[in-house]
Request: fold
Amino acid sequence: MNVILDLCIVPIGVGVSLSPYVAACERVLAEAGLKTVLHACGTNLEGEWDQVFAAVKRCHEVVHEMGAPRVSTIIKRGTRTDRAQTIDDKVKSVEAKLAGL
Amino acid sequence: MNVILDLCIVPIGVGVSLSPYVAACERVLAEAGLKTVLHACGTNLEGEWDQVFAAVKRCHEVVHEMGAPRVSTIIKRGTRTDRAQTIDDKVKSVEAKLAGL
Amino acid sequence: MNVILDLCIVPIGVGVSLSPYVAACERVLAEAGLKTVLHACGTNLEGEWDQVFAAVKRCHEVVHEMGAPRVSTIIKRGTRTDRAQTIDDKVKSVEAKLAGL
Amino acid sequence: MNVILDLCIVPIGVGVSLSPYVAACERVLAEAGLKTVLHACGTNLEGEWDQVFAAVKRCHEVVHEMGAPRVSTIIKRGTRTDRAQTIDDKVKSVEAKLAGL
Reply:
């Protein structure tokens, strides 16, 4: 089962500068061989379910290892069985609708 | 690693009545032996990470098997290493603050 | 337009104990006359759109006034035009499906 | 109060093709003069609180007007009082950390 997921990781108890933690997670996801697109409020990922969730778990572990006592995460996730769809497909599909109007 | 999670599953392409799908997921979670608390916008879960995410994956599969071509899910999730905390602890902690004011 | 909303407020930069901030938000919501149901990962609210969002904005302001330099919030929100529905209706609808199986 | 927000709108009860609804919301946001960045799981917005939430409310209304009986939305939102920050700043901040490693 393929999944498209948006991951937003918020370390708690480490002050207000969170970008070192987000950068560490980006490296975890890249090392897992996942395609990612970073945006201002999270990261889009795509891949096979078990591979994706193993990487997400590793992100939690890494952020704890960096010293964060609490980690709060928001995942938005979609699966579909009617057809294959990638991160790029989803954006292009909306852009096509916008261009056609 | 223990996790407290809030799960909200939205089947897409099956009309407006989603409660049969939510009920099916509640059964999946109960069969997995997870403690759950249902609320109006999701379900609180607690358990060991791998057990929890295996059950969440099974929810996606079941909702697809029931006929939903797309499933959109939102997960809010917290882990903490500084101390153990349950779903009940979290609610009681806020209620204690409210009572004390 | 009526709205059912799930609000989760995470102050950033104030350490790991967040319940005083959640309790302060509960009081803001109660003073606004909104029906709320607290759970382990947020608070369910229902009310008229403008009244609800004025209260949510006030929560952000109060948490900043308490000293949090950053506030991260997750809102899940639903509106429907096909019929009126309350927080209680949503939970009962799922429970009815579970009981009937 | 300035806000950075990630908006994800899911119409329910209109089938599986949601891009026309997302495109309509993109137009609402552009007409409101908001800076937006579209990604595969939502749209980043930045602006003044009241302006942003007026546009978000208008998105819900437009999607209902297009025929969706239910609309489910996820908002992740951040405010900060310690310094001004834009959507671009947030991405650049992570990229700088990645480049430095």
Notes: Helices of chain D lie at 19-31, 49-65, 87-99. Chain D touches chain A at residues 4-6, 8, 16, 19-20, 22-23, 26-27, 37-42, 44, 46, 74, 76, 78, 80, 82, 87-88, 90-91, 93-98, 101 (CB under 8 Å). Residues 1 and 81 of chain D are 8 Å apart (CA to CA).
